[in-house]
Amino acid sequence: MQDKAGVAAAGGENLLFLTDDQLRRGIEAMFFAYRAFTGKPDELLAERGLARVHHRILHFVGKNPGLSVNALLRILDVSKQAVNAPLRHLQEQGLIVATLARHDRRVKELRLTESGQVLLQQLSENQLRMMAAVTHELGEADMAAWWRVTTQFARFAVGK
Questions:
Q1: Does the pLDDT at position 7 exceed 60?
Q2: Helix, strand or coil for residue 149?
Q3: Which helix (H) or strand (E) holds 53?
Q4: pLDDT by residue (tens digit) across 124-143?
Q5: Which residues face 108 on adjacent strands?
């Protein structure tokens, strides 16, 4: 069922002017979606005594080989103290190496080891499958809307 503007949820409710109850259901849906998205990686991490913060570090270092510690801090929006222990754990487990930058020996550059790349692949497999399945099921128009929504939420994370 659609409203006059043609925007309606599966249950027929108008999505242009959401009630507090509808907004709360949206929040609840995001909680469940996040739990589904992070569930399998959380299990794999727990087997190694690691947590989501370790996954985030692995993800961004894997995406940006040679990433400086300071750049990682900016991406994660955390203090040096907050990332120190998790980064050390990843190094102790042989998943990340830190080397001195050629351009400035005061800068540590981070890279995944081969083991780190394998773990990141394992952590991402289920998430990639889920993303592909949802993309296939929803189609291009719905996914374009989803990208707009998640991009808008991400803006809150970076303070824009």
A1: no
A2: helix
A3: helix 52-63
A4: 999 999 999 999 999 999 99
A5: 100
